[in-house]
Design goal:
about 180 residues; mainly alpha; Four Helix Bundle (Hemerythrin (Met), subunit A); two-stranded antiparallel sheet; 2 strands; about 60% helix; about 5% strand
Length: about 180
């Protein structure tokens, strides 16, 4: 099971590096308008979200995690999991507003953001590789952004992967607008 996520993470990481790895600081931070995130902001957002899951998963491992009451209601766990997975799909038909804790705090990133993303992806793969027993037990966690949004850990990893693909598509749209606007 973990291999399927690892393979997808490798593909996403490679796609980001291939598409954006040779861009300049200006290209990574370019925004078509104030309401749209730059390529670098999209990447930073993914790093922040992925890292926000670590304390939750580490608390489960340490036995310090208390599943919210709503997480004990199978219907709600399935409902939230399916809903979130649907919303983060890469087709980008619907815009979404993220939780404040996951918004990029800056719009001035260095080219190191690509290396930072690559390192975070490796850490995410390592985390997933060590969660076999939690996955086998059907562990339920809450969203790092809202304790009342609950889903299985397996679904959390599916959500993370789909979300990364979604933001890759969003970053590609920004890059296409940039090329079109500059005549490149």
């Amino acid at each position: 099971m973990q291999d399927r996520w690892a393979n997808k993470i490798d593909l996403i990481t490679s796609a980001f590096k291939t598409e954006f790895g040779s861009l300049s600081v200006e290209q990574l931070n370019w925004k078509p308008n104030p309401q749209t995130w730059s390529i670098a902001q999209n990447i930073h957002h993914l790093i922040v979200i992925n890292q926000s899951y670590y304390p939750v998963i580490n608390a489960v491992r340490a036995g310090n995690y208390k599943t919210p009451f709503i997480g004990k209601v199978g219907f709600m766990v399935n409902f939230f999991g399916k809903m979130l997975l649907t919303v983060v799909q890469p087709d980008r038909k619907r815009k979404m507003k993220t939780f404040a804790i996951w918004e990029p705090k800056s719009s001035d990133f260095s080219t190191d953001i690509i290396k930072d993303f690559e390192a975070e992806q490796a850490a995410l793969k390592q985390l997933i590789a060590t969660c076999g027993n939690l996955l086998n037990n059907g562990t339920v966690i809450c969203s790092p952004a809202n304790k009342n949004i609950v889903y299985k850990l397996e679904t959390a990893f599916d959500i993370i992967i789909a979300h990364e693909q979604r933001h890759f598509e969003q970053a590609k749209e920004v890059f296409a607008a940039q090329k079109k606007g500059t005549g490149n």
